């Protein structure tokens, strides 16, 4: 068979790069161009963006690494041992899991690459991965890039986006290998409840599957909800790969530090392939990550601000005629059903043109997202600044609602 393109077919779903006319917030130049022109970008899940928010402890640790450390040299590809120890201590403190920093933890340049690394050794071409719909776009794209097949499992908005084991069972075939969750979920902010996870875990064990649990948003779970780490559930430590990030809760996306935690048979392969897949994470960033993970003040301070932001976003947007908002149980994201106003693409386009604000077209998050938009309420340091921008968003949505005859 002759190939007509030098690009492997596994990449056929990758769009929005250099040559494609598709405009998306997180690929290609779209967001960069809009930022240059003074638009507000609420489309990157990046707390406090674009304002300064580097904690003093993290700044000091990185400067100390530059002044007195070895910033110009690699750490081991699997990550600095001091950072892996800090990560293990944190996991013990938050979950009770006793992970060995020399056997169960690998540091990655952000959790996006951690997620791809996590999946790589699990999948042969044609294997199937069950991915809730809606969820983080990489959950689908990564699987395709690896030559495997994402199979979406619908989550029901009317039922609080709960995990429904019967839906997973309907989607399971002989080729199913992996269940991939973003927990809490992006874009809905849903915190999966203990009962749902216990039921899913028992089903995963019964069917001899592996769970990849992306917990990038785990640090800020609100309303006294419980953040359950699936690896702590019966039979799950030996079949769960947990993926973490310092980008979201700690608000340090620019450092590009994530980490993957798993049992020894998985980690044997991750450690072996680290030099090929990971390279090594930035030495200065790892020093900053140690300080961030050890500083007990950062998470509570960020949380207090993000709760204010959530209140502002909800107040301004939940009652717009034609909009149905999902109450964000975690994190920094607001998920809006705009089906009465238009498709997600149409509404996002209207907001760029009329409010000069970039949000995400929900279609990127799965088939059920097509009539939704996602926006990041965690942007800006000040809730007042967010209020100014969302007031423009509200006005633009009200215009659309009026055009659709939804406003008197
Ligand atoms: C669910 C989820 N996982 C992982 C990531 C990647 O984050 P990072 O690579 O900055 O750790 C994101 C970023 O938006 C995300 O939303």
UniProtKB/TrEMBL annotation:
<dbReference type="GO" id="GO:0006520">
    <property type="term" value="P:amino acid metabolic process"/>
</dbReference>
<protein>
    <recommendedName>
        <fullName>Aminotransferase</fullName>
        <ecNumber>2.6.1.-</ecNumber>
    </recommendedName>
</protein>
<keyword id="KW-0663">Pyridoxal phosphate</keyword>
<keyword id="KW-0808">Transferase</keyword>
<dbReference type="InterPro" id="IPR015421">
    <property type="entry name" value="PyrdxlP-dep_Trfase_major"/>
</dbReference>
<dbReference type="Pfam" id="PF00155">
    <property type="entry name" value="Aminotran_1_2"/>
</dbReference>
<dbReference type="InterPro" id="IPR015424">
    <property type="entry name" value="PyrdxlP-dep_Trfase"/>
</dbReference>
<dbReference type="InterPro" id="IPR004839">
    <property type="entry name" value="Aminotransferase_I/II_large"/>
</dbReference>
<dbReference type="GO" id="GO:0030170">
    <property type="term" value="F:pyridoxal phosphate binding"/>
</dbReference>
<dbReference type="InterPro" id="IPR050596">
    <property type="entry name" value="AspAT/PAT-like"/>
</dbReference>
<keyword id="KW-0032">Aminotransferase</keyword>
<dbReference type="GO" id="GO:0008483">
    <property type="term" value="F:transaminase activity"/>
</dbReference>
<comment type="similarity">
    <text>Belongs to the class-I pyridoxal-phosphate-dependent aminotransferase family.</text>
</comment>
<dbReference type="InterPro" id="IPR004838">
    <property type="entry name" value="NHTrfase_class1_PyrdxlP-BS"/>
</dbReference>
<feature type="domain" description="Aminotransferase class I/classII large">
    <location>
        <begin position="58"/>
        <end position="392"/>
    </location>
</feature>
